[in-house]
Amino acid sequence: MNASPTATMVRALPAEYRERLMSVAREVSFPQGSRLFKEGGHADRFWIIRTGNVALDLHVPGRRDVVVETLTHSQLVGWSWLFPPHTWHLGAEATSPVRAYEFDAAAVRALCQEDPALAAAVTQWVGSIVAHRLQSTRKRLLDLYAPYGSGSAL
């Protein structure tokens, strides 16, 4: 199993697990400018983008929300649904028309509870994405607010 930081569900999970997750998915669409969720809200679903772009943003008091990463085709939108207290840590907005697969978090957690191997695979997949997004957010905030930026070479 490949659990690279940006691994799509197709690359990260065996076919059997993907099929089980897709059995609880439904197709949805969002027009450009739609808010998928707000930071601090209840995380009760997640999405895999089929087409379009979604910006992840962070509320900065006294300033506009800061976009920390833009997601596109095949990427996971939302990870807070997996970890208690199931509260969004970032916000998300469609920056173009978006078509996606939407997953009910309670249904996926129930599948995971029934099958520890599925739970381990999903947790490893989502956990690797969380680690990647944490690093991306840190670098973005350093670039915006630290006196010398993130220090990464151009």
TrEMBL record:
The record's InterPro entries line, in alphabetical order, gives: cNMP-bd_dom (IPR000595), cNMP-bd_dom_sf (IPR018490), Env_Response_Regulators (IPR050397), RmlC-like_jellyroll (IPR014710)
What name is this protein filed under? Cyclic nucleotide-binding domain-containing protein
* Transmembrane stretches, start-end: none
Can you name the source organism?
Answer: Streptomyces aureus
Q: Where is the Cyclic nucleotide-binding domain?
A: 9-78
Question: Which Pfam families does the record cross-reference, listed alphabetically?
Answer: cNMP_binding
Tell me the CDD domains matching this sequence: CAP_ED (cd00038)
What residue ranges carry the coiled-coil annotation? none
